[in-house]
From TrEMBL:
The chain crosses the membrane at residues 12-33, 338-362. The keyword Transmembrane helix applies. InterPro entries: TRAP_TAXI. The keyword Transmembrane helix applies. This is C4-dicarboxylate ABC transporter substrate-binding protein. Keywords: Membrane, Transmembrane, Transmembrane helix.
Amino acid sequence: MQKLKFTLFSLRDFLVAFGPVLALFCGLVYLGYRLADPAPSRLVDMTSGVQGSTYERFARAYSSELAKSGVTLRNANSEGSQQNFERIRDPDSVYEVGFVRSGSTDPEQATEQGLISLGALFYEPIWIFYRSKTDWRSLTQLKGKRINLGARGSGIQRIFTELLQLNHLQEADVSIQRLPDQQALASFLRGETDVLVFCTGSDSEIVQQLLQNRDVRLFDFEQAEAYTRRLAYLSAVTLPRGIIDIGADLPARDYHLLATTVTLVAHESLHPALVSLMLQAARSIHSKADWFSKRNEFPSERFTEIPVSEHAVKFYEHGTPVLQRYLPFWVANFIERMWFVLVAAGALILPLSKIIPPVYVWRIRSRIYRWYGQLREIELSLEQEGLGWQQGTQRLDALENSVNQIVVPLAYAEELYGLRGHIQLVRSRLAAAAARDRQSPPAENGSCADC
């Protein structure tokens, strides 16, 4: 510790000199932090689908991906796409994001209510299963059939209604059932339901079970391209021959299907940083190839009815933000939000920082120079008041003891030794004056110096 006193630099004095500028800089940064876009929430509420569905499975995958960045995704089950849409657009709802199927919503209404799209995630084919000895060639053959469309809120009814209308049918021409999937399957196998209509991914257990049942037929949309021209939200996809089991040649031919796309829909209040984080998770989850899409085909800004968020567009154009590629999410987000504040504060502080070296030098030298005032007082007392030896020596000793306690960096030791030398100079003058006083004879009473 003793050696630390004798350095070329005084950290304490530097901090005192730099302190006001540092405090001003911190104050500006804090003010900018308060006024800038607030930090994203660490909790996101998502609405997915029925328990065990593809939507719920993907919601769990999103939860795992977001957890890596310290964000908790809280999932709530729903009846499906339509209920998800209703929840997100509700201004009093806590739900910020969810899965919505194309064709199940009104795009203009969604835009008016502040909903945005983060992009399409995957195809969701329309599966129509029926029992018949021959293949059906047209949906007109659905007339008079008992058809199950799944639980209410699934979002398929609007799409199915439009398909019927294109085939000159109305809902009154068929018997609509709204049983949950498992109950509908049991009813179908008992013969109480004629047609099952699903709009779900190829990983659905019920779909795969029906595809392997040789007593059940899958409707082949031979006019798929025509449907897509009339209903823009639909895409024509192909179920390839042998995709289920190549060795068993199942299915034994290609099937033409119509498919909707599932979109990640959010409320416009979702923080831009969370938009980027959700899309990074989407790219990790949905970029793999499946029965109907190629690798890296999804997520995509195409195939979505609701306008894509401008922040999502930037993500699709440039990918993951540069800082988030190398830094933890929260660190990168802080820098992205605060860089302009830091630059502005730095531009203001830089000129002020030029006064720091002079202030630092002044603080060091002021420890020395302030003792010159007392030394000058002693010297004036010696010259004007005839300061006595004993009193003068005591004052100089006290002054010298105080000066000996001064600690300054070695770079300023010359000034300190100069002060000590000047004290010795005054001490020498005091000693010389005392010596003259002892040598001078006392003057007699009444004598005259001129005599």
